[in-house]
Amino acid sequence: MHYEPVTPIRWHNGQVEIIDQTRLPGELAFIRPQTVEEMWDAIKQLKVRGAPAIGIAAALGLYLAVKDSRAGNRAEFENELKKAAAYLATSRPTAVNLFWALQRVEAAIAAATTDDIAALKELVLREALAIRDEDEATCRAIGRNGAPLLRDLEAVLTHCNAGTLATARYGTALAPVYYLASCGKVLKVFADETRPLLQGARLTAWELHRAGIPVTLITDNMAAAVMARGLVQAVVVGADRIAANGDVANKIGTYGLAILAKDHGLPFYVAAPASTFDLSLKSGEEIPIEERDPAEVTHFGLRPTAPEGIDVFNPAFDVTPNRYVTAIITEKGIIRPPYQENILQVLDVGRA
Ligand code: MRU
To answer: Which atom of ligand 1 is nearest to the CA of 160?
Structure first.
């Protein structure tokens, strides 16, 4: 199977070009943020979303912040960069890739050997584009590493969108599906619609269908029935942040799916790049969980679906305890329990 995946974020003709994911599936439209404020807004409003993609967007947002800088010296420039990073960091709290990417660009500037402001600006852009390019290679490696786990299955269930649209390309959870398809093995995918913002219905169903991969859309409350009927043989999801003990924050509803998978004897796989691990956090309890506008729950688009003024709880993510996670698929290899030790070993960090 041969197809060219879409490019959700790119640097084109001297501008950042982003697919506006809030317009999908109706329309494939692009936005071209010109300022750091416009990039902040695009992230906040989920025009660009998915952990790796918001990291890339934030890094490019730093470039938008400093591209017209009139800093008189390097210290002033670094200060402007720091302020912009602090501002972008307020857009969404859960996906650690956002903070990782901001820190990476800041570190590249701190390590620069030049004081020339034009050269430093160029370096910010180059580092942001390197993050984008590396993410594409990383996702391809996640696909290659995860493929043996899924190769002999007929169908998998996924939640939210952890596909091409959520990354530079190929996705994380969907990367093994795309990789296998490129090798001639086409898996079926059941996609949870993913209330309240329908990333599964709007985005996962759209990109898989476009790629020619058979996708069956279900509402979130159908997952147990799908498993009970033996229609899927594994669950594979992405992640927004993974703590040192292997607890996984991902789109709200993931935790419930993990419990269902365990009860039905199905493997529950999480696919994520090394940049999604936050080893400074001992467990998932420490992961900050974004709470969003109640209107996302009380309305379907602009139409109210609940009584006015009703109390709403709208966390965008939940935390799946490590005991439900069969394995974590990364670009560096597959991590299996016990996570505390094996995360460090496979990611090759934190050891003398
Ligand atoms: O709120 P979103 O759409 O940004 O949530 C996205 C998810 O939960 C994804 O599963 C996660 O970011 C992994 S994307 C490769």
So the answer is: 10
